[in-house]
Structure of Trimethylamine methyltransferase family protein:
Amino acid sequence: MRRARQSRGEAQSQGGATRPPPGGRFRPLDDGSLRSIIEAAFDILARIGVAADAPEMRKLAIAGGAVERPDGRLTFPRALVEDMIAKSRKRVELPGFDPQRGIEVGGGHVHIGTGGAAVQVLDADTGNFRDSTLADLYGLMRIVDACDSIHYALRPVVARDMADPLTLDLNTAFAAMKATSKPIGTSFFEPAHVAPVVEMLDAALGPTPFAAQPFCFASVCHVVPPLTLATEACGVMRECVRLGMPLQICSAGQAGATSPASLAGALAQGLAESLAGLVLVNMMQPGFPCILAFMPFISDLRTGAMTGGSGEAAVASAAAAQLLLHLGLPSTVSAGITDAKVADAQAGYEKGYTVALSAQAGADMINLSVGMLGSIMAASKEALVIDNDMCGAILRSVRGVEAFEGAIDLDLIEEVVTGPGHYLGTDQTLRLMTTEYLYPRLGDRQSIPNWLTSGAKTVWDRARTRVAEIEASPAPDHLPADIEAAIRARLPIKLEV
């Protein structure tokens, strides 16, 4: 009987370990605050609306039920917004190039990923910061491929050695695709670049059309806070809908600068901006796969600079996740944006609490959460593998305590207390040691004497070793060589690997 209970318990625990866990236990907003922010967001859309210069967006919005104010701003009646929320996709499938590595976004199941547009990398050999390149982008994405607690790879750095915008967009998507078979994300300079990139991704899949396996999503900042639609980005958004590329649409107001200084006000404006984008996407195509990247950034009001590692940033992102989870909408928030310039104690504590609070609040995707330094101005491979360790522990904490059948076994307790006096070596301990527990790859748990004897290596030392191991291992080969050769022959691909 006990063995049967243990077997079922092991299976349940194993299931929790392999599927991203559901968050939502942490609720920084009480019920009253939650309602007031949502009501304010509806009121902002109905009363203040958004500025929109693009004629196509204006025509689409007005035809769909938006109302034009005398000053030209577009407002969205509450009934219209609620209707579009009802029509929107509540779960978004993001397959990988390898479909087995895909993710389902929605419902508060937490996924960790990269993201951003850093322009520098920290060179571990010299300790200096330098401009990021296409090779750096590929290298970072290849590290992501080998990190088991990172689920998707959105472009973290800009390849600054690519001067031509179209060449940059093509090579960014190509480098990400070649480096990992996990779901990837990219961005575009202008609407005309979406089609050639989709054609390249379509060719890469061979007989499977990209529309059937859209392993790459587009990250689009559809709005320039406060409450102004971004003309080029909205054009990109429309092209992605036309061509079947899933969307992650972003509002990134900065409290005290481009959104109100009060966190509640910043959240209300940011939610309104996010919902405006959702309305437009569903006017283009009801139910199109669209994830709301609601990123309430924070200003250090002494200088006006963004601070990504503050306690305010942590709680604001968690609140954004709570708001979208309450509305039943697929969510992305930002966390892990340390202000530290190196992977030191400041980086550790800022990344730890910002990512943990967003995860516990039930963010479906957490962008910018790994590998970033200096308020997302720089990236580091070594920071990325350190953060992978951190995120594994955070995801384990989100799972919580699972009282599966057989977890509490009185027969076993009696055997131990009347016998050996410890649980080491029991069948249950051996079964659960790889499902109930997670072990860090880089974090050190040795005694001080053993640590000293083994070389007194820091986590940075171990991270450098881990990066070298990944880079010395065979590169991912999911992209067939003949297809890659055909793509390179047809397009200006500059990646030299």
Notes: The chain is about 45% helix and 10% strand. The longest strand covers residues 216-220.
